[in-house]
Amino acid sequence: MTHHFSTRAIHAGQTPDPTTGSVIPPIYLTSTFVQDGVGGFRNGYEYTRGGNPTRTTLETLIADLEGASHGYAFASGLAGEDTLLRALLKPGGRVVMGNDVYGGTHRLVNRVFVPWGISLETVELSDLDAVRAAVTPGTTVLWVETPSNPMMKISDIAALAEIGHAVGAIVVVDNTFASPYLQNPLALGADVVVHSTTKYLGGHSDVLGGAVVTSNDEIAEKVGFLQFAVGAVAAPMDAWLTVRGIKTLAVRMTQHSANAQAIAEALVGHPAIERVYYPGLAEHPGHELAARQMRGFGGMLSLSMVGGADAARLFVESTNVFLLAESLGGVESLIGYPAEMTHASVRGTALEVPENIVRLSVGIEGVDDLIADLLEALKH
To answer: Looking at domain 5-246, does it have CATH number 3.40.640.10?
Structure first.
């Protein structure tokens, strides 16, 4: 029986503890497991780097929500991305990536994998002809992020999957901004989905983590081996906190989206703002596509400020309810200046973020308070 998303988010991979009846499965804070004779592993557990019941719960849960056969949880989003890329690439491989992605992802490929013998090309993913020209035979990975960070570009996952597969490339989608509640890339043709579970999945700014999910058995075998061999795994407490966060993902994403929509509409036309970047606005170039491949428009939006870099910096330093901080996806609203914060590492590259851009991670506070806070800050 296929249950509603909200039901699966609360129950998938979880059963009451058989020993005590505890509704919440326990946290297995152990490094190792006793063996019933040499090699007699109980339920396959030997050592927590190789597997831990609490991590298994998280991995099963995320795979279920993305409609995948295999899930792997890591110590951070970048740890997951690094392990996946190690599984997919070898010297001489080629990565094609969108020209607007999380700065850490570009840094990982450009400064870790390129010196190792990988080539990297960035392209405007919304221009399918440009993608076809870039994704040539020999391309190993087509890396997609939609909505993109921080310019909120929307990419056609199904079309990009078709283009990538035509040349034998593996299509990876970073689904962090949307979360599984709003978007399921595997159902649209992608091969692999990655998440920073630190963000919307955990949802409370209190845990670091990442995930890789896929239904491709060959990729899964490689990722699973490297997860064990390299060892950047999610710790039991981190896994438990992320599972707890996911239980409320549906209601949180609904509120994040509603608040962000209201804020975007309230800021359109403000004299201090040049443009509001939010796919829920009809004037957003990706609005119709987002409406087709997403169930909602999410809690992220960006603004370009009329007064340039100085206005942007002053604005982000003038809010009270919105907190000036990196990261996103928590219940509290955050504001940031990407050019010198989340995307400082891509200055001087094709991914450089304009200096007048401000990024908002809209929380689930009272939306009237959030709007009032932004309007007051804009007076500066």
So the answer is: yes
Phi, psi values for residue 144, rounded to 5° = -120, 140
Phi then psi dihedrals of residue 365, to 5 deg = -65, 175
Query: Can you give the residue ranges of every domain in the chain?
Result: 5-246, 249-378
Q: For residue 147, what are the CA distances in angstroms to 102, 284, 317?
A: 11, 12, 26
- pLDDT tens digits, one per residue of 47-68: 999 999 999 999 999 999 999 9
Query: Mean pLDDT score of the chain, rounded to an integer?
Result: 96
The two structure tokens encoding residue 45 = 């557990």
Selection from 124, 141, 175 nearest residue 286 by Cα: 124
249-378 CATH: 3.90.1150.10
Catalytic residue among 49, 132, 247, 275: 49
pLDDT for the residue numbered 2:
65
Q: Look up 222 and say whether it is catalytic.
A: no
Residue 232 reports pLDDT greater than 90: yes
223: helix, strand or coil: helix
Read off the tokens for 168: 């034998």
| Neighbouring residues of 149: CB distance < 8 A, sequence distance ≥ 6 | 100, 101, 102, 176, 177, 300, 342, 343, 359
Q: Does the active-site annotation cover 49? A: yes
End-to-end Cα distance, the chain: 55
* Residue of 94, 153, 199, 252 marked active site: 199
From the number of C-beta atoms within 10 Å of its C-beta (0-12, 13-18, 19+), residue 15 rates as exposed
Q: Is 102 tagged catalytic?
A: yes
- Per annotation, catalytic residue among 64, 156, 174, 373: 174
Phi-psi region of 269 (alpha: psi -120 to 50; beta: other; left: phi over 0): left
From the candidates 28, 45, 102, 337, which is the catalytic residue? 102
